[in-house]
Amino acid sequence: MKRRWLITLLLCVAVLGGALAFRLWPRTLSPDQCGTVYRHYAAVEGVEATYIKDKHIGGDEQVDVTLLQATDSTSWVTLLRDLDMPDFDVEADDDFFVHYLAAKEHPDQRVPFSPGLCDLVVLWPAESTVCIFHIATEVQYDRLLKNQFDNLEQ
Amino acid sequence: MQHQPHSTPDIELLVARRTRQAAEQRLLAEVDAGYGHRSLVAAVRHYAVVAVVAVVLAAGVIACTSVPDGRDMTSADRAAVLSDVNYVIDNL
User: Which of A39-53, A90-104, B48-62, B74-88 has the lowest mean pLDDT?
Assistant: First the structure.
């Protein structure tokens, strides 16, 4: 009888540990779980591409994010050209950002806001970085720009 | 000393004793089998209850634990990437 309860205890600990591990353990996404922009730039030399799934952006909101980081100035210029953007001064201020709405998975095509059909593209020249938020709802868009308004109010 | 053959009452006594022993052994075997069956049923019932409780616990843990930022991403350098994205979000 005592042995049965020992097995029971071990079983419960294993189940709880498994559930926690399932929830917290970092997982590396496979390319087919990522967007087309990531898949394109993952194969481009001079650009470090990262895809993040369900990034918290405040409140209960989560968005998928593609981060593209040029490793040298030539790649940065090429990246900007791909996005149909003019060149930026790489010595730009750390807090200088440019953002616009683009068609989903097409950061070179500017579009007006349309829930589920557009991405928020943010250029960060100081770090030669492009951050693409794959927004699906208006709430997510508002949440991302909320900090901008908060910063203006200060 | 000459061996005396068993008398009839002796043989009857012996047969009766053997019959009683066989009946006792049969009864003991049946009791053992019954106990084993009850024990198996109790164990199955116990582990079925434990399995249900474990599933409920696991579901509770999954529901109450929020997924950490950057759990699912392609980069191995999670901290640096998250730091950059958080900076963008905070300073947009």
Answer: A90-104
Partnered with residue A63 across adjacent β-strands are A55
**Over 90: is that where the pLDDT of A114 sits?**
no
Q: What is the ipTM of this complex?
A: 0.84
Domain spans, chain B = 8-91
A24-35 pLDDT per residue, tens? 999 899 988 999
Place of tokens 């926690």: A20
Q: Which residue of A has its CA nearest to B54?
A: A12
* Partners of residue A20 in chain B, C-beta under 8 Å: 61, 65
**Which one-letter amino acid corresponds to residue A6?**
L
Residue A7 CA neighbour count, 13 Å, CB half: 9
Token pair 């990034």 is found at: A55
Between chains, do A8 and B61 touch, taking CB under 8 Å as contact? no
Q: Which residues of B35-57 are buried (b: 16+ CB within 10 A; e: fewer)?
A: eeeeeeeeeeeeeeebeeebeee
CA A59 to the chain's CA centroid: 17
Residues belonging to chain B with any Cβ–Cβ distance to chain A shorter than 8 Å = 43, 46-47, 50, 53-55, 57-59, 61-62, 65, 67-76, 78, 81-82, 84-85, 88-92
